[in-house]
Amino acid sequence: MRCILxxxxxxxxxxxxxxNTLVALDFDGTLAPIVRDRERAAIRQxxxxxLALLARLYPCVAISGRSRNDVRRRLRGIALREVIxxxxxxxxxxxRTLERTVRRWLPxxxxxxxxxxGVAIENKRFSLAIHYRSESRxxxxxxxxxxxxxxxxxxxxxxxxxxxxxxxxxxxDKGIALEQALRKLRCAKAIYIGDDDTxxxxxxxxxxxxxxxxRVGFRRGSLAGYYIRTQREIDRVIRKLIELRARPA
Length: 249
Description:
The chain is an alpha/beta fold. It folds into 2 domains: 2-91 and 172-246, HAD superfamily/HAD-like (Rossmann fold, 3-Layer(aba) Sandwich), CATH 3.40.50; 96-168, Trehalose-6-phosphate phosphatase related protein, domain 2 (Alpha-Beta Plaits, 2-Layer Sandwich), CATH 3.30.70. The chain has helices spanning 10-17, 45-57, 68-74, 96-113, 138-149, 174-184, 200-203, 234-246, and strands spanning 2-3, 21-25, 60-63, 82-84, 120-123, 128-131, 155-159, 163-168, 189-194, 211-216, 226-228. Strands 1-11-10-9-2-3-4 form a 7-stranded parallel β-sheet, with helices on both faces. A 4-stranded antiparallel β-sheet has the order 5-6-8-7, with helices on one face. The model has no long low-confidence stretch (mean pLDDT 94).
């Protein structure tokens, strides 16, 4: 991975800014800082203003692990073309079958994990997130989660920052969602910025010149092509894209 904000990578951003490019961004850890209480997550005012301007210059979407309604509420007033929730499931892959499947998992997981008072299970209708940031016995909790997941049937487990995401096997992921958004909005290229394991589904897409992937935070082994050092640098990336698009040819 190379730092997208280094002077030598300027032409990469300029190339995408000059095209019919979709800009897609994750929420937690990308647009918004990671916080201990997930309900208090919010984007900074500086980021909100920049994102609002970016959305007037480029077609923009948010792709988050949160539920779609949750993200829409936190980004209210910004003219995004689409908000995609539940790791790519909402809106196009959502179904009552998936909702029933997830609802069936809840009693079993609650029973298996009740010995860990710091573990919280978040029901997002089409997937679950098991948060263990507040649990003191993190190693034991992670082992219990993995063991409990074996009894759920076909699932896909995706780790995160002190969270385990439990998704129905075969459900759309963020990579599939990005490709669908690209088709629906009739864009030729895409820029995607994310920070977590679920974003690797986008980073793993075969780029072939149409996709620019940027990870928040350098991580050896990530499939992203580029990175920024910290979440605060998201403002610099957005500002640079605005400058490149607003500048006369």
